[in-house]
C-alpha cells in the first residue's frame, strides 16, 4: 500500500534528550513537510524539503533539525534546545512543492516530555 | 505574515442539515486552497481542493472560492454524525501550506 508512515506513534522524552521521529513515504513524492500541532491549535510548519539534500526552515524551526538524504525519508530530530516539545507531530508529502499540489499526512507521532 | 482565519466553533447542526464552514486568508498571492477533516486524536485527511473561483462539488461536499474577497468555504449537505470532526482550512502560496486553527463541527442525531 502506498502511503506515509510515521514512527513511533507515541514517544516519551526525558528532559535534555534528543529524539528522532521517523517519516517514510513510498508515494514517490518530491516534497515533504513537518508540522507541529498543539491542543486547540492549527498546524505550524517546522521544516520542509522540496528535493533530496535540500530543506528550508518553516515558521518554528528553532530546536529542531532535519535531513533529506533519500527521497523516501525525512526524519525530524527534536533537540534539547526545544523548550516545549510536547505536541502532536505530523509529517506530510506532496508530489512536488508546486502551488497546485495536494499534501497528504502520515498518522502522526505524539511526543510527551516526562 | 500569512494568516488563515477560521471560527473555532463548535458549529452544531442537526443530522440531515447543511453545515457551512468558512475561512478567510490574508495572502493575496495564495494559489490553491484545501479542506482537511481531522477526527480527535487522528491526522488530517484531505477532503476537498479548489484552485479557481466558483464552486466545486464532490458528493455531499461543496467548496466555494472567492479570491477577490479572500474567502473560501465548505458546505456539507445532509450532515451525518460521522461528519463530526474539526475541519481545517489550508492555503498554499508558492511552496508551503498554511493552516487555520480549524472549526469543530458537531452533528447531532
List the helices and strands and how they pair.
The complex is a heterodimer of chains A (114) and B (109).
Chain A: E1 4-7, E2 10-13, E3 19-25, E4 31-37, E5 43-51, E6 54-57, E7 64-66, E8 76-78, E9 87-94, E10 103-105, E11 109-113
Parallel strand pairs in A: 2-11
Antiparallel strand pairs in A: 1-3, 3-8, 4-5, 4-9, 5-6, 7-8, 9-10, 9-11
Chain B: E1 4-5, E2 11-14, E3 19-25, E4 32-38, E5 45-50, E6 54-58, E7 61-66, E8 71-76, E9 85-92, E10 97-99, E11 103-108
Helix segment count of chain B? 0
- Largest interface summary: A-B, 24 and 25 residues
Strand residue content of chain B:
over 45%
Rounded to an integer, what's the Rg of chain B over CA atoms? 13 Å
How widely separated are the two ends of chain B? 41 Å
- Specify the structural class of chain A: mainly beta
**Which regions of chain A have little confidence, pLDDT < 50, spanning 5+ residues?**
none
Shape designation of chain B: globular
Outline the biggest β-sheet of chain B. Answer: 6 strands, mixed
Please count the beta strands of chain A (DSSP E, at least 2 residues each): 11
Query: Given the C-alpha coordinates, what overall shape of chain A results?
Result: globular
Distance from N terminus to C terminus of chain A (CA atoms, Å) equals 35 Å
Structural class of chain B: mainly beta
Query: What is the number of E strands of chain B?
Result: 11
Main sheet attributes: strand count, strand direction, barrel closure of chain A: 7 strands, mixed
Helix coverage percent of chain B? under 10%
Order of helices and strands of chain A: EEEEEEEEEEE
Mean pLDDT score of chain B = 94
Which segments of chain B are poorly predicted (pLDDT under 50) over 5 or more consecutive residues?
none
Oligomeric state, counting identical vs distinct chains? heterodimer
How does this structure look, described?
The complex is a heterodimer of chains A (114) and B (109). Chain A has 114 residues and is an all-beta fold. Chain A contains no helices and eleven strands. In chain A, the strands form two sheets. In chain A, strands 2, 4, 5, 6, 9, 10 and 11 form a seven-stranded mixed beta sheet that branches. A four-stranded antiparallel beta sheet of chain A has the order 1-3-8-7, with no helix packed on it. Chain B is mostly beta strands and 109 residues long. Chain B is 0% helix and 55% strand. Chain B has no helices and eleven strands. Chain B has strands at 4-5, 11-14, 19-25, 32-38, 45-50, 54-58, 61-66, 71-76, 85-92, 97-99, 103-108. In chain B, strands 2, 4, 5, 9, 10 and 11 form a six-stranded mixed beta sheet that branches. In chain B, strands 1-3-8-7-6 form a five-stranded antiparallel beta sheet, with no helix packed on it. Chain B is globular. The chains are: A mainly beta (114), B mainly beta (109). At the A-B interface, strand 5 and strand 10 of A face strand 5, strand 9 and strand 10 of B.
